[in-house]
Amino acid sequence: METPSWLDKEFVERALRYSENDDTIRVNEILTKPATNKGDNYTSEMIRVSVNFHRNMNNKIIKENRSIIVKLGLTADGVHKDLIEQAGLFDTEINFMTTTLKDMNSILKDTKLGGNCLFTQRKDPSVLVIEDLAPLGFRMADRQTGLDLEHCILAMKGLAKFHASSVAVCEKTPHYKDMYNKGIFNNDNPPEMTKFFTSGMKSLAKAVATWPELGESYSKKLMNISEIAYEKASDCRKRNDNEFNVINHGDFWVNNMLFKYDNKGKVIDHIFVDFQLCVYGSPAIDINYFLNTSPSESVLINQKDKIIDIYLSELTTTMKKLGCKSHPPTLTDLKKSMRQTELYGFLSACTVLPLVLVDKNDAQNLEEIMGQDDSAFNNKAYDGEAYKLTMTRRLPQWNAMGLLDL
């Protein structure tokens, strides 16, 4: 992607002056490059900006270098740029990073949930300037191999702290509950959002027809539910104020988290990125989405219960530490909620998981996948062998649960 003309020294200087509250800052030079690869990010563009600047401190000129991330809406004109704007994704992220996340980070003290937001602009264009987490040692894990147990444990402990701190801040600031009411699966989202999932289900149905392990009967069932699956997933995740609720990250998959490693390559820390789809509701939303998009298949088969136990233990401990008035769910409650939102995880595996497992050489952006109409939907991810192996195991389980007979 090309660096937009407005992303110049003057813009970066204005952002740094705002974030540092220091009008003596003068930017000398900036260097820009893409911050993500194709297939890493679908609803925005990310640019890493290396900044050389100086400022006046105690009558001395201090020279500094800084790396920041500039996140902007899709710059190419087209239907999918409009989709991002209509869904209000940037407004959600700006609201979350400038208010709720700051409150959650401040009460946790010993845990940093996400990078600091340095500067925002809501339109013409929508922009977020965010702390670059790479200099702190954080980087993406390999989405294609799936997260091993150590990565999953860190991710679920991080999720538990995210959820627990959201409970604490919602008790103090109740209106936060109503600020995050959309999420990925919501019948009020623009039709283009629904189209992505509907077309994805149809693509899966066509692919399954060629898999001898499953074949025509599974293909027909998937095609039959393709037009209603999104609506049903939206219904199953609706907020119930009589149950335990949290602010969910809402898009908690391997590419929306970063990990830190020690000198021996052992994973030691986890942090969240991308808060465009936060939604208030059952914690099972994040858990089901994560389990169906991010762990390696062997971890999911052999360690699923352990991962859930670790999450609940961390949630309970953190809520107690933060002095939450609400009671955490029991394991029985949590598993019941996970069953009620299983369709959420099922649809995630049918439409998001192929993007996770696709070979990097076959990665596509949103425009390439969706095209301009239904017939143009072209997601190469459904052709992958890794995805086929995964789904030939999972689909019979969901079929037994009745999810293919909606």
From TrEMBL:
InterPro entries: CHK_kinase-like (IPR015897), EcKL (IPR004119), Kinase-like_dom_sf (IPR011009). It comes from the Eukaryota. Pfam families: EcKL (PF02958). Residues 128-321 form the CHK kinase-like domain. Gene3D superfamilies: 3.90.1200.10. This is CHK kinase-like domain-containing protein. It comes from Microctonus aethiopoides.
